[in-house]
Amino acid sequence: MAAMCSALRVCRGILKEIRSAKGSGYRHSPVYQYVLQQFRKNQVTGAQLCRAQMESLHAAVSYRCLLASTRLHQRLHLQYHARGEHTPQQAAALVGLRMPNQPGGKGWET
Amino acid sequence: MLRNICRYHTKFGQAIIWPFSFSYVKHVPSLSTQLQKAKYSSATAERKKFYETVSITQGEGGLFEINLDKRKLKTPSGKLFTVPNEALAIAVANEWDVQKDTLKFYTMHLTTLCNTALDNPTQRTKEQMISAALKFLETDTICYRVEEPPGLVELQTNEWDPVMNWIEQRYNVVIGSSSNIMGPQIPEETKETFHQHLNSFNFWSLTGLEFVINQLKSLVLSFALIDRHLNVEEAVLLSRLEEEYQIRSWGNVEWVHDYDMYELRARTAAGALFVHLSSEKTSVKKKILQD
Fold this sequence. Notes:
The structure holds two protein chains of two kinds. By secondary structure, chain A is mainly α. Chain A has four helices and no strands. In chain A, helix 1 (2-22) packs antiparallel against helix 2 and helix 1 packs parallel to helix 3 (53-81). The longest helix of chain A is centred in the middle third of the chain and has 29 residues, at 53-81. The radius of gyration of chain A is 24 Å and the shape is rod-shaped. Chain B is an alpha+beta fold. Chain B folds into two domains: 54-119, ATP12-like, CATH 3.30.2180; 126-279, ATP12 ATPase (ATP12-like fold, Orthogonal Bundle), CATH 1.10.3580.10. Chain B contains twelve helices and six strands. Chain B has helices at residues 2-15, 31-39, 86-97, 109-119, 126-138, 150-170, 188-199, 203-216, 219-226, 232-239, 241-250, 254-279; strands spanning 46-48, 54-58, 64-68, 71-72, 82-83, 102-104. The longest helix of chain B has 26 residues, at 254-279. Chain B starts with a helix and ends in a 12-residue tail after the last helix. At the A-B interface, helix 1, helix 2 and helix 3 of A face helix 3 and helix 12 of B.
């Protein structure tokens, strides 16, 4: 039972990732249909015993991890690393600091 | 007809240029590496998305191919991109399908792995790959222990020892750990056992396994992951144990620690999935009903 519950959770997790990556119309993508079909096929029921259930569950967990980590990594990449070098002001703001503000200029401008 | 084909070729030749780099190219500097570098530029390069739909077809020999609109996907060296099973084909197709305006090749780990296996850019043999994998055993992350601070020592003992015990029992070998800079003395029998085990992998899964070992910096953790003793999150956590310990005392920096962790997780998950998918064969046999 515990395995079943977690399989359901993994399945939902994967479908959620597909939805957030694809947007609307995600239900028609082949990967959505394939994942659902695999989970249905490997279900343990009274009539059917699946020896490879743990193996496919492990693969499903890996796939969920792949999709989620890729999304989160890409988000951080776009936020921090994709825009080239930061200006001193932006770099300071990242760690919660501000560049000093000198009213009379810094002295080296002409 | 001929003109059409020519046009198709020019279109195609320009359409798919491959800005991939392979992470383990770095480890084996050779002439061929230099040549490859010319062709495979930075992995962070992006291209405009040039297709609308992605589909899969089953071609000759039961191999699966990826189609971007009407064009067939090819590898960086120009071979036809084919994968041995449907699950892998669907996962790769999904990677292409979810790209938005630009193609972000650094997020397409499974495609990269398939390309590496198909092209074999550094021209390596199976034997070379096995010895490269075994070399990691001598400097395996979880064999090297610290003597201070006490908190980290305790953490390493509690977290790494169970995995070590598991692998020693599973393969009936002796590995051991050491706090010496020279590392533990690995017996020849242990290497022989792992050599035999690695030999049972096919070329594709060996490619994936080597990728995982390179990510986790540990043969032991990689075997634990591939043998389904650990899942990806656990394996990555164990591989980054010291970093996690430092984060606990000094704080987490999102754009370094989390960034690295998610990248490591994605790469490790892709590698593990690649090994599992390329070493399994699924076939469906139907009974023919007779009247």
